[in-house]
Amino acid sequence: MPAALPAPDAGPHDLSIGELAAATGVSRDALRFYEARGLIRARRRGNGYRAYPPEVVELVHYMRTAQQLGFTLAEIGEGMTQVWQQPDTDTAVTALLREKLAAIDARIASLQATRDALATRLGMPCPLATA
């Protein structure tokens, strides 16, 4: 689902920032931050207030879930663009998850190697001497 595109006026079913915050459990400040990063877009009401299309609720839930899975906001922004350009979004999301899992596995292996090196040095007379 693509991010909401800006429109000249808000629609009758659009949500205020407060309503969007309540529907998603995300603070108004976080929503403004997402908007500043280009992750979501608000339309403007006649009074200049933000108005979000209802589908932005699902988009914010997607972003929060992705953050909980370890994706950065930059990765989320890039990933959303990649996903929406694909005819099969489920396959595209699965590919992103596999890539993230591979990166985490590589990081775990690197940390394990570092841990092993530290553990080996604990038994040395001078742990910082060349091994």
Structure notes:
By secondary structure, the protein is mainly alpha-helical. The chain folds into two domains: 1-69, Multidrug-efflux Transporter Regulator, Chain: A, Domain 2 (Orthogonal Bundle); 86-124. Helix content is 57%, strand content 3%. It is built from five helices and two strands. The protein has helices spanning 17-24, 28-36, 56-68, 73-84, 89-121; strands spanning 43-44, 50-51. It has a two-stranded antiparallel ribbon. Helix 4 runs antiparallel to helix 5. The protein is elongated, with a radius of gyration of 22 Å.
SSE topology sketch:
Blueprint: H1 17-24, H2 28-36, E1 43-44, E2 50-51, H3 56-68, H4 73-84, H5 89-121
Antiparallel strand pairs: 1-2
Helix pairs in contact: 4-5
Terminal CA distance:
54 Å
Detail the poorly predicted runs.
1-8
DSSP strand count: 2
> Which structural category fits the helices and strands?
mainly alpha
Strand content bin: under 5%
Average residue-wise pLDDT: 88
Helix content: 55-70%
Order of helices and strands: HHEEHHH
Major sheet details: 2 strands, antiparallel
Query: What is the global morphology?
Result: elongated
Helix count, per DSSP?
A: 5
Q: Give the class-level CATH name of the largest domain.
A: Mainly Alpha
Organism: Ralstonia psammae
Domain HTH merR-type: 14-82
Protein name: HTH-type transcriptional regulator CueR
Pfam family, one: MerR_1
Question: What keyword list fits this structure?
Answer:
Multidrug-efflux Transporter Regulator, Chain: A, Domain 2, elongated, 131 residues, two-stranded antiparallel ribbon, mainly alpha
